Amino acid sequence: MGYYDSENKFNVAVDCIIFGFDDEGLKILILKRNFEPAKGNWSLMGGFLQKDESIDESAARVLKELTGLTNVYMEQIGAFGEIERDPGDRVISIAYSALINIKEYDKALVEKHNAFWVKYNNIPDLVFDHDEMVKRSLKELRRKAAIQPIGFNLLPPKFTLPQLQRLYEAIYQTTLDKRNFRKKMIEMNVLENTGEKDKESSKRGAYLYRFNKEKYEQLLHEGLSFGL
Amino acid sequence: MGYYDSENKFNVAVDCIIFGFDDEGLKILILKRNFEPAKGNWSLMGGFLQKDESIDESAARVLKELTGLTNVYMEQIGAFGEIERDPGDRVISIAYSALINIKEYDKALVEKHNAFWVKYNNIPDLVFDHDEMVKRSLKELRRKAAIQPIGFNLLPPKFTLPQLQRLYEAIYQTTLDKRNFRKKMIEMNVLENTGEKDKESSKRGAYLYRFNKEKYEQLLHEGLSFGL
DNA sequence: CCAAAAGTGTTATTAATACACCCATGC
DNA sequence: GCATGGGTGTATTAATAACACTTTTGG
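YS: structure for the whole thing
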């Protein structure tokens, strides 16, 4: 294949920005590297692209290696390709963000990789350009969460409205008006009240809702807006 | 460097979606390939990443090879990495969009590459996944143009308000109210009336404006919104 | 019985939209 | 003098933001 430039081939990596949410707020999962290079420093979970996988598949595999999770909402953030971004060797890295339910992941795997959840407004310095990747993916998350109900991916299948509100408040680092928030969420018409109540965080208990993906997909086709 | 995977190296390419605008509307610049592979088919302008350049630099170089232009507004659209996206060999391609002033490019170079401007709602089928790249970059352009005044990059340094309006109408494939449009543009406070008039498209003549980049940068820091 | 969180509507403000006529000039 | 495109303000409507009290129940 003489058209392809065999002299100029590169390692291609994927790096994952893994978001989670619990009662302490929005968090990302990062590694305290117990391997070279940059051993001892903090970094995102990453891995090299293999010949038998697409870049999306590669990102899913890397996420699975750390969390055990499959079928996770992931989104490409972009390609990072400065010459010296990785001082070890030239590597083109493609950043992906993942939104997971923080209650469900393989703790043994995470421990094995020496990974920890850190609150996203308290992230230590990361190796290479991983700081920028995180910044970009948070920006993307904020942009996207305002126009599409991707936040549900950060919650368990059943969740309460106060919980959902706290999630959005964490994402945007703001406080929202309870009544206006509930109004909008309910008007979206993609929430189903299960009738059950969650009594974990209050005596009275809050209704548990479910996200109705079918209704949402339908709305998408009709053209939905959903403003914050 | 034992940490890096010398078995799994890939060709990395950049492909450019080059937008232009004239009185016929919004256009992109594509090649009728007079080279293999897929000779005779239409494609985006692209090129392989070299060892001595970052991916952003690579995209700028590729754009320059076709148009002769430097210092062009470019934006990364994303990485495309399906295994079989290029049937010739495995290639990871990173798409970039470029907004140029269609009056200023090197016509000899464009001719040499067998490239042509086509109206963007009349684009022929393109090779590989280039159709998807175009679709994505148009979507990005629409998203971005509504919140940042990037449209100016598609116009000459001095332009009239009717011209600017036609540009936005072309981007969004809609018609806009003249008065509301002018109001918003002027309220943004980044347009300077040069006092000169352009008489090309009317007898009366329309004022020529200039985009004030300094004012814009300033607004950006103060946090600007700019809704359509 | 009271503390703590859940639930519920209405009004005020602001932003977006709709709309029609006069102006300047080249032919 | 008239056809062509350029320029201007106000009223309506829709969206967003502000706001306070009642309900439930475990301790």
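YS: worth flagging: Residues 177, 179-180, 199, 202-205, 227-228 of chain A lie near DNA strand D (CB under 10 Å from a C1').
IM: good catch. Also Chain A touches chain B at residues 1, 3-5, 8-12, 35-37, 48-56, 58, 76, 78-83, 88-92, 94 (CB under 8 Å).
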